[in-house]
Each structure stands twice: as structure tokens, then as C-alpha cells.
Amino acid sequence: MPPLEQDMFAGCAPGLPPIKIGGKWTVRIAACLREEPRRFTELQTALGGITPKVLTESLRAMERDGLVRRTDYGENPPRVEYALSELGRTLFGPIEVACAWMQMYAQARAQST
Questions:
Q1: Which of 44, 83, 102, 113 is the most exposed place for a label (fewest CB within 10 A)?
Q2: Using an 8 Å Cβ cutoff, are 64 and 74 in contact?
Q3: What is the mean pLDDT of residues 74-88?
Q4: Angstrom distance (rounded) from CA 84 to CA 36
Q5: Cα-flanking dihedrals φ and ψ of residue 68, to 5°?
Q6: Given this model, what pLDDT does residue 51 score?
């Protein structure tokens, strides 16, 4: 087996951490925001078992990574909406490929048992 190349990641942008897409709720939140901006309570209702703390943490992480835009309208009562950014919209291509792979994997696994 050949050794790993020492510069195998040389083409990657230095200092930029990869975007974390592996969170349990990231894809589900993106799906909820696919058609239009949503308010926090709409997301929480649609996502069922998510706690407010976890939803807040997930939205902040997605905003930090540039996947979600948060708009605070500065009204009373407060109104905040979350929307997918252009970068966030690009997630659906890889998500569809991952879903197809998971279906293929599940079929192969079912056939091997």
C-alpha cells in the first residue's frame, strides 16, 4: 500500500475550515427553508422533536457557515426570519446525491442479508 502524500491537501484553501454539514438537523432545516423564509416557531413546529436550544444552535452554526441569512425586522413584537443563502441553496445537489447513495446502500445491504 503506498503511503499517503504529505501534500495531499495542498490544493485546499489555507486557514478555511470546512463547512460542517453533518449535524442531525442541518439538512432538515435547509429543507424547511427551501421554498421561503420561515420564523423560528414555524421551524420548531415542523421539526417536531427539536428543542429551542438545539434549533438556535443549529441556526447560528448555519448562519456562521453562510448557509442561512437571519433577518431581524426590528418590530415590536419582534419578528425574525431565516432564509437560505445562495450558498445554502447549493446544498440540495449534494443532498440529492447523498440520498441516492443511501438508497443504493440500503438496497445492497438488504440483498446481502
A1: 113
A2: no
A3: 94
A4: 8
A5: -130, 145
A6: 96
